[in-house]
Amino acid sequence: MLTKFESKSARVKGLAFHPVRPWVCASLHNGAIQLYVFTYASFLYRPAMVLLASLVSRKIFPPIFLRRVIAWDYRVGTVIDRFEEHEGPVRGVDFHLHEPLIVSGGDDYKIKVWDYKLRRCLFTLLGHLDYIRTVQFHPNATQFPWILSASDDQTLRLWDFQKRSCLSVLTGHNHYVMCASFHPSEDLIVSASLDQTVRVWDTTGLRKKQMGGGMDAGFGGAGMSSVNGSSGGRSGTGNSAALNVQAELFGTNDVVVKYVLEGHDRGVNWASFHPTLPLLASAADDRQVKLWRMSETKAWEVDTLRGHANNVSCCLFHPKHELVVSNSEDRSIRVWDVSKRVGVQTFRREGDRFWILAAHRTQNLLAAGHDSGMIVFKLERERPASSPGPTNKLYYVRGRELFCHDYSRATGGGSGIDVPIASLRRVGQQAQTDGIGSAPRFLSYNQHNPSEGNILVCSEVDGGCYELITFSLTNSSGSVTDGKRGSCLGPAVFLGRNRFAVLDRQQRQIVVKNLNNETTKRVQPPVPNVDALLEGGASGRLLLRAEDRAILFEVQSRRVLGEITAPKIKNVIWSPDGSKVAILCKYGVVIADRQLEQLCSISDTVRIKSGAWDVSPTGGTSSELFIYTTLHHVKYCLPSGDTGTIRTLDNPLYAMRVVKDQLFCLDREARSRVVEIDTTEARFKLALANKRYGQVMHMVRHSRLCGRVIVAYLQSKGFPEVALHFVREPRTRFRLALACGNIEAAMESAFALEQQAAAEGKETGRDIWGELGSEALRQGNHQVVEMSYQRTKDFDRLSFLYMLTGDTEKLRKMLKISNMRNDIMGRYHNALFLGDAAERVAVLEESGNLPLAYVSATMHGLDEAAEKIKVAIETNGGTVEGLMDKVGEASTRTGGCLLQPPTPIMRANNWPTMDVKKTTLEDLEAAEAEQNGTDSYNETSPIDAGNDHAQGEAAWDDGGFDDGMGADDDLGFDDDDGGAGWGDDLDDLGDEFVDVAHPSKAQDEMAGLEDVTEDAFQMPTSGRPPAGCWVANSSHAADHMAAGGASSALQLLNRQIAASDYSVLKEAMIGCYLGATMSMPGIPGSVSMQVPLLRNDAVGNPGAESLPRNSLKMKNLAAGVRSGYRFFQGGKFNDAKAAFGDVLTMIPLVVTDNRGEASEMKEMLEISREYITAIRIKGAMAECASDPIRSTELSAYFTHCNLQPSHLLLALRSAMGTSFKHKNFIVAASFARRLLELPDMSSQKNADLRVKASKVLQKSEQMARNAHTLNYNESKTFAIDCKNFLPIYSGEPCVKCSFCGSSYADVEAVSHKVCVTCSFCAVGVETIGLVSGS
């Protein structure tokens, strides 16, 4: 059983799958109806606003949240809505096939029809006189709007939900009717009752009445058919009412009993039809499941399936396999083989009785309701076993046949043809039944043997087995050799032409065998916890999967070639050239090179289903583009880390091969399919990453690339000039033009925005012209600056600009404008810029500053104005005496002069603007010129290029190669030249030297500089600073912090270990930054020089590959752990906790040199976590000293922390004393035994403790009872909840800290909260984990 979704609720009595959407509806014993969304993902609870937003966007629900809505994450299984209008338990529920309707029936005798879009009950059907057990819509509800209900009033009823009336009452049972259901395709109804019978009813008469002329008559009154089949609404309401009463009492003959099946010894709880065959299955309280066969005239019992130990609640036929699934009150679900009529599988659930089963109409899904909720599950995995073969071939298994799919023989747009290879024989009883997980799980083709075909077929039957099949590659009808079988764990892998390797199930050894199935070698893996072998990408290599990492292992030399961290690895796909490998994880993809050095890692929110590398012969995407599929999407991933979504899928598909814009895949029925995909976006990003600018610009001009995502991507990569070609929206285009310094495009967009605002009656934003003016000022284009200031009416800046450019006429105009605006300060500034002293004096006088006006007039020699101002001052009762004394005599001041405006250096039309060089991407003509030259990005041979050119598929990519090299005349290599081209160059140099002696020709020589071509000398580009190299060469947060990139360092910590509280790491991060450089004094008068300290310069200068030296080393961690040990031994628990906490904060910023140090650092991480947890438990013990139960439990948990033996001795001694003191003798004896088994107890210093432990053990064995009931079971493995200090036993739900691994049981309360152990990482966030090396 593969559980896909599980919910916790009250007892589930009814279940129904939605026919299209991934929904399941459950009716509960407490009277509620819950609507769930389920998909195939893990059970992690995350914020749910994504679900609600998507439902609103699809108009499934209105954007108004009622108080009854319970929403979680839609990828996990969430309650969409809850309907609570029934009084008492709700026992039956069903979805309409086409309309948004749900029908339910309960113990309140009511049938309710709900609209789940409107989220309310539409109407209620009344008529039953007792509990309603089941309700169901007709399978063809569009033509027959019927509802079938079964009740404890011993009747079945058929209702017309459109007219909201009863059509027919089916009587005949003499006890409770437990269930009733329609036949999927025929006019039949089956019902089961506690009268020990199963009845099959024929509804042909009612159907003919509905389809024939009786439609109008039959529903003339209350809409109920008469007893004898005639219409009852012809003579008015009195006759109709009489017929209604008659039908209520005696039923109708439109539906007649066809068979009565008797055979059960007790009441029958359930009966169901086979979807296609004339078979019935029934389940009863006699603990039996019976199979019945029907014919046109009779029905008889076929067989009885025995095995349940209590009442069988429900049974049904599997929709896709010849299986019967039943559940029972004996807490089990059983699967029966219909053809063999035996039980093949049993699934048990402790503590919960099962009540109901439901099967999806089209998918391989089942649901079961039990006492505490429900589960959605499958009986087997649906991924077909497949493996790529030689060129253009795929091998896969469908049913019990092995096929070869030949892509090269595709015709009519198909994907190819299937060639049968061999029939697979299955060994073992379980393997003989389809649909229960007996199909092959893995397939491996021998790529190392070109002479014959070898395939290993692996399955999980009997714990894991393999079968070796050998066949001819040239003769498809030749003999096939099989029968070479053996046991293994996981997939078997070919190592060479005549060797393959399997993993031994018992000893976990790598067993190498030849093609005769003979063992030739046994190799011990480098790590003990290897659980699967995967393809190694080359002969003699294997990938070993061990927990959350993959190890590249060479079998012959027994060397570890590489190692990479990847959680929950499912499969690996090597690129066609073997240079890269894609590691498919449960929720992510890791791409690495052939030495297993990580290139990129991406994560997804849903499970990864499959993946394939692009094998297109042209375009440069082969082995560079990886396509992978999820449940409902096709996505791509590039080695640079760029990802995107290509298209959606209606049903899951498994990618096998990618060629250009075609995805070859297999569906769940192992049928080959071809899906059209558009990889333009991926090819565009790949060309941009590989600097194939000609290809980029061709795609810009000829591909339909658009959208905010592409624009944002180009901006983030530093190519806003390319985004200008996509964007037509003025505001976005304006931002992009400013980013790339394109003043012309920015002006065009600014005018467009102005016109748009004018048309809408709005004011143009000052920020637009302000930003344009700032950029133009940066480039030195003062004409655009002038226009921007004019648009924004920034008169002060405009006047200053005119002063700098020496435009006195416009300054005069600005002075007039200031005068008209009564702007005193503006007038004074303009007068000051013009050097107009008289105007300044006039401004001061008019503004009432007469003393200042007098001083200014006197200083500038304006005697008349000074005299006039003097009179005005004295008239107002003032005096001018002493004013000039404050200023001082001008003749006595050294260097004193009058303030005059500066003389502008240039008075030309515009300043020399800063050179904003157009890139190749921005200049389309330059891109085309490059395209017509040598094609630096062409990866195909000239032959292939010529073929593609002839086909017209990639003329822009390859035609330039022929044009550039096909004609010698274009390159100047004619035979007649005789080297004259070189002589002309020397002659030109000689003329230049002669021209230097003539001063009159100096102007011409300077003008000639404009004709210098790109072949002339140019200044070399500046090198990259060390900090830039550090960031580019490392993915470790410490290296980014050393380079000063605090933002990228914090982002790395958040992505890798979900760090969220960075204040704890502040001291360590500052140490990384300060420790990466040193300061050297320079020459006197100059600043000190910053010298980077490198850790990889032992041999020589690493240049661009440099990495910074880290101030934190492994010795710092070791010293911190030793300090923690010392404090813990001495009982200084606060100091010990602080020491281990410091170790946890240093670990993310320590760079290890090798795998040994990385393993040692992870071990220190675990030690620090265990000791901090132990110290916190010790503190809780002190707080609960008065509570004997809790103190004993905490002391017991204290002993299960992974401590050093000497510290464990102290913990066991304390726990033994506490439990013995509180008379919990059973656990006291357990602690005493563990204490006596410690090695340190044999030493002389612990002799007294050994005697005490022996006495406690003896006394405890005599008493042999616990005075209290403790939440502690030493026989079971458990983790400790670091928040509440409670055990988390194996199988119980929990979440862990992404960094330190602390466990928490309360999933909802602690998810995305800061871990209490490490104090800076979030809990429950799935990440790649700690990165220890650069």
What would the average pLDDT be, to the nearest integer? 79
State the shape.
globular
Contiguous low-pLDDT stretches (5 residues minimum) are 40-76, 213-240, 924-1016
Output the radius of gyration: 42 Å
Descriptive terms for the model:
1334 residues, alpha+beta, four-stranded antiparallel β-sheet, 36 helices, 30% helix
Q: What would you say this structure looks like, in words?
A:
The structure is a single chain. By secondary structure, this protein is an alpha+beta fold. Helices cover 30% and strands 26% of the residues. It has 36 helices and 61 strands. The protein has a four-stranded antiparallel beta sheet, with no helix packed on it. Strands 2-3-4-5 form a four-stranded antiparallel beta sheet, with no helix packed on it. The protein has a four-stranded antiparallel beta sheet with strand order 6-7-8-9, with no helix packed on it. The longest helix is centred in the C-terminal third of the chain and has 29 residues, at 1155-1183. The radius of gyration is 42 Å and the shape is globular. The two termini are 42 Å apart.
